[in-house]
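re the bet — no i am not wrong, look at it urself. input seq straight from the record:
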Amino acid sequence: MANAPLVDLVGVGLNATDTVIHVPSFPECGSKTEYDAETILPGGQVATTAVACQTWGLSTRYVGKLGDDDASRLHAREFLRVGTEAHLINVPNAPSARSLILLDKSGERTVLCRRDERMTLQPAELKREWIVNARVLHIDGHDTAAATLAARWAREAGVLVTADLDDTYEGVHELLKNIDFLIVNHDFPFRITGEPNLKSALREMQRRFGSRLTASTLGHDGVLAWDGKQFHYAPAFRVPVVDTTGAGDIFRAGFIYALLQGWPLPRCLDFSCAAAAINCMSEGARGGIHPIDEIGSF
C-alpha cells in the first residue's frame, strides 16, 4: 500500500466539461433563441467535490475516466493547479464527458449531458491502494459496479463512505449497503423506498441499508437529514443567484470538510448550505469556492 499516500479524501466518480450558455429564458420548442455568452469550465460531481476540498486545505485524490481530447487536458491541468492527486484513466480516440448548461436570468440551469459508454469506469481499473489509503471515500454511484467495489474496499479498511446519488442505477441496492453518509437528491428517497413522505423515506433508507445518516438536499429549501434518532433541518441561504450549477457538489464538499473537523451535525449542515449558496453567486460548478473563514463568517 506504500505506493498511495494517505489522503483525507478519495473521490471515485464523474467528471465533465461544462459549456455554460447564458440565455434570456429557457427556449420554447421550435423557437430560435439568441444567447449572450458561453464559457467552457471543468465540472462533474465527484471531481468538483474533490477540488473544493483540496482548495479548503484537505489532501485529496481523484479517480476517474477521460477521453483523449482538450477536455481531458483541461481536467488534468486543473487537478495539477489545485494539488489534487489525480489518477486519470484516458481512453484513446474517445471524447470526454460533456455537459451543455443552459443558464437563464434567474441562475437556474438546464443540463444536457453526453457521456460515451467508453467513459464507464470499470472495477478492474481501480487499485485498492487508491481507496483504502484515505479517511473518506466519496462516490456518486454512476458507474455503479466500480463504485460498489470501491465502497466495499473502503468499508473493509475502516474508511468512511459518503455518497452523492441522484438516480436509482442498476445494482445500486448493493452499493447502498456500503455507504455511511448517504446524501441524495430530493427524488431519490421516494424512488428507492416507495414511501410517499420524505421523512418516512429517509427513515426507511436508514433502516434498510444501515447508513449512519440519510439526507436529502432540497435545492432552495435546504436539506433534511435523519441520524437514526432525530431529524435535522437546515434552511438554504438566500443569495443573489448567478448559477446553480455545482451547488450539490459543493454542498457535499462542505459536508465532508465539516465531518473531518468533527463538528456536530447541525453545524455540518449549516456550513454545507453556506458553501453551496456562496458558490451559486458565481458562474460554473467551481466558480464560488471561497475560503473557509469566509464561509464561516457568511
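see?? The mean pLDDT is 94. told u. also Residues 137 and 161 are 5 Å apart (CA to CA). so pay up
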